[in-house]
Amino acid sequence: MKLNSIGLSEKDSKSLSEDLNELLANFQRYYQNLRGIHWNIKGKRFFELHPKFEELYTEANLNVDEIAERVLTLGGVPLHTFEDYIEKAKVPVGKNISQDEEAIRLIVDSLKELLIIERRILDASDESGDEGTNSMMSDFITGQEKTVWMMKAWLAEEI
Fold first, then answer.
1. Contacts by 63-68 with C-beta closer than 8 Å and gap 24+?
2. DSSP of 9-67
3. Which of 48, 84, 115, 152 is the most exposed place for a label (fewest CB within 10 A)?
4. What number of CA atoms fall less than 13 Å from residue 48's CA on the CB side?
5. Which residues form the Ferritin/DPS domain (predicted)?
6. Is the pTM of this model over 0.90?
7. What's the CA gap between 132 and 16, in Å, rounded?
């Protein structure tokens, strides 16, 4: 087995960077959705939700950068065109959403898709001994599970 400069299998690193690129595409769509609902939210909960959506898109933007840098660390090239994001993303598209419950449901649905991908990457990075990717996925999962719980509580729904 040939190892790269950070001591990981080149084959595993290539596979993980491809998985991370899938996550990157989905995070970019999630980020755009958050920007859209931040800009377009209306109604009596505007003052509550507008800053919350900004908090979420700021965090998503940081995660996008972290994912892209991890792809580079593993020797890959991060996706960086909308064409690539459209082709690879599974996160639902939120267009012209201005109502609070619809916005919150979009966030929950988007995070569900991200969590599925992240858990798959977590398992693969664990198998390959890639602690850097594994730690990043673990941190993402922990934060997103909490966000899902809070959003479901806001909706007065069970997890």
1. 63/27, 63/140, 64/24, 64/27, 64/28, 64/31, 66/136, 67/20, 67/23, 67/24, 67/27, 67/136, 68/24
2. BHHHHHHHHHHHHHHHHHHHHHHHHHHHHHHH--STTHHHHHHHHHHHHHHHHHHHHHH
3. 48
4. 10
5. 19-156
6. yes
7. 11
CA distances from 125 to 14, 27, 67, 149 (A): 11, 19, 14, 26
How far apart are the C-alpha atoms of 18 and 22, rounded to whole Å? 6
Beta carbons of 136 and 70 less than 8 angstroms apart = yes
Among left, alpha and beta (phi > 0; psi -120 to 50; other), residue 157 is beta
Residue pointed to by tokens 């693969």:
124
State both tokens at 140: 């993402």
| Phi-psi map region of 95: left, alpha, beta (phi>0 left; psi -120 to 50 alpha) | beta
Q: Cα 93 from chain centroid?
A: 14
- State whether residue 8 is helix, strand or coil: coil
List, for residues 106-131, the tens digit of each pLDDT value.
999 999 999 999 999 999 999 999 99
